[in-house]
Amino acid sequence: MENNEVTVVSLPRIGEKAPSFEAVTTQGNIKFPGDYAGSWVILFSHPADFTPVCTSEFMTFASMEEQFANVNCKLVGLSVDGLYSHIAWLRTIKEKIEYKGMKDVEVKFPLIEDITMEVAKKYGMIQPGESNTKAVRAVFIIDPKGIVRTIIYYPLSLGRNFDELYRAVVALQTADEFSVATPADWRPGDDVIVPTAGSCGVAKQRMESKEEMTCYDWFFCTKKLSKEDVLSKIVKK
Questions:
Q1: 197: closest CA among 206, 188, 189?
Q2: By CB distance 3.0 to 4.6 Å, which of 21, 91, 140, 219 could disulfide with 43?
Q3: Superfamily of 21-160 according to CATH
């Protein structure tokens, strides 16, 4: 008899608590997300150690770690490889790999051992359409309260854009801090979007208030927010 059973891949949802787990990493044992309470976190997976795309990504993340730390964001990596593989790969990166001006790169953030795929399955990182034995390139941005705020998936062949990941962290913090939304391609210093008024009357009241806004229609209003104001609120002193 033919088995038509479909494998369902579960994954966390934006706005929900990040699934908790304990794991062994290259920086010791962690309890996630509890150990990271009060910080933003990027939890990301890669398909395998000793692979070129993953190597370029880890070098980039390690080179930007201080930049992320300055906006209260920590990094945690994961693959389904074992701890000794992780250690050997990261040592090889530091001792042998030079790429795009990056060399002697030391990866100091934790890299999770997940040979049982327990964590990867909790986070929907194993997707059979791509591979049954490798985690896809998943990114979870998790806020200081342990809530999932952004989820991005990439196929095995596509390296991530790390400037975009940094931009997303800054944009999320800006939206929270100033009760605004950020438009397409927003970067600190660009105008931000005032939350939708809900009615023409409310929009008119806003436009007549002292708050300076540019309204293109009742549902689309922006206001200026300086780069200095943004960074003063989110960059760690």
A1: 206
A2: 140
A3: Glutaredoxin (3.40.30.10)
User: What residues act catalytically?
Assistant: 54
Asked if the peptide bond before residue 33 counts as cis, ω within 30 degrees of 0, the response is: yes
> For the chain, which residues make up each domain, given as ranges?
21-160, 179-234
Instruction: Return d(Cα 237, Cα 233) in angstroms, integer.
Output: 10
Per-residue pLDDT reduced to its tens digit, 110-142: 999 999 999 999 998 887 777 666 778 999 999
Task: Report the amino acid identity of residue 25.
Answer: T
Q: Using DSSP, state whether 102 is helix, strand or coil.
A: strand
pLDDT (tens digit, 9 = 90+) per residue, 9-29?
Answer: 567 999 999 999 999 999 999
Task: Please provide residue 176's backbone torsions phi and psi, each rounded to the nearest 5 degrees.
Answer: -65, -45
pTM, to two decimals: 0.89
